[in-house]
Write a structure and sequence with these properties.
By secondary structure, this protein is of the alpha/beta class. It is built from 9 helices and 7 strands; from the N terminus they run ααβαβαβαβαβαβααβ.
Length: 270
């Protein structure tokens, strides 16, 4: 009997520290923008596997078809189509979220665009397009989300940054600047929302095979694969573990950080 009692006490002691408990998003409402893309779709599947109720959002109407496909596979997901660069559409989206769910536990600001133009040829509208989508939309979405989260005393906000927050390549000026701004926004928001039960962090992927990447360029593909210590490109699914860490109780004391998921790309030099 004493042995059994000791075993029960030990089980009770560690019950809340099991991976199933620490990383669970069971019943939590998670909104992801850019969910019709490669990284957004992978994150949606990862969150669903952790038990989340998903609100998958994108500018592309095919988001609805994709969500229907996901539901047929057992995911708890609804879809919304709106433009994250239009403030009135964001406000309307969050009104719907509040009416349907009455809360929002996790926001993932994943929507983004990239423009590859040499600096001396860069047009103002190209600059503005990237700033509006990759940086200002994060601010607008996060502000709306935080207002809901403050009322409930809990929330997780995750922005998608990039290794281009830390380094740069030619022809990517607005993208590099926007991603640097995302990491700065992350720190600033963490400071402003301190003590309100909300954490704000950023995920910074390395070179990942998506519709935006240059993985189909043989020369660049070889460069990334040879340079990266992991000796391969990242896959969208490689971000799921880190995203779940930041979204769940496991990451409760991680705040204001940019977490690089790059296979070691930034760790090496020549």
């Amino acid at each position: 009997m004493k042995a059994n009692a000791s075993s029960d006490a030990t089980s009770s002691l560690f019950a809340d520290l099991t991976p199933q408990k620490l990383f669970s998003l069971d019943g939590q409402v998670v909104l992801i923008t850019g969910a019709a893309g490669g990284i957004g779709g992978a994150l949606a599947r990862g969150f669903a596997a952790a038990g989340a109720k998903l609100i998958a959002c994108d500018l592309q109407p095919r988001m609805h078809e994709l969500a229907e496909q996901w539901r047929s596979q057992g995911m708890d997901v609804e879809s919304m189509v709106f433009d994250v660069t239009r403030e009135e559409e964001i406000t309307n989206a969050f009104t719907q979220v509040n009416q349907r769910h009455g809360r929002l536990d996790v926001l993932v600001n994943n929507a983004g665009v990239i423009v590859r133009t040499p600096f001396l040829e860069l047009e103002r509208d190209e600059w503005q397009k990237v700033m509006d989508t990759d940086l200002t939309a994060c601010f607008l979405m996060a502000q709306q989300a935080a207002r809901l989260m403050v009322k409930q005393g809990y929330g997780r906000i995750i922005h998608l940054s990039s290794i281009m927050n830390h380094v740069a390549r030619p022809n990517l000026v607005p993208y590099v600047v926007a991603k640097g701004g995302v990491s700065a926004l992350t720190r600033a928001m963490a400071a402003d929302l301190g003590g309100k039960g909300i954490t704000v962090n950023a995920l910074a992927p390395g070179y990942t095979q998506t519709e935006f990447s240059q993985a189909k360029d043989p020369e660049f593909n070889a460069f990334v694969s040879n340079w990266t210590p992991a000796k391969r490109w990242g896959q969208p699914e490689d971000l799921c573990g880190a995203a779940l860490l930041l979204a769940s109780r496991a990451g409760a004391y991680i705040n204001g950080q940019t977490l690089y998921v790059d296979g070691g790309f930034l760790a090496v030099t020549r």
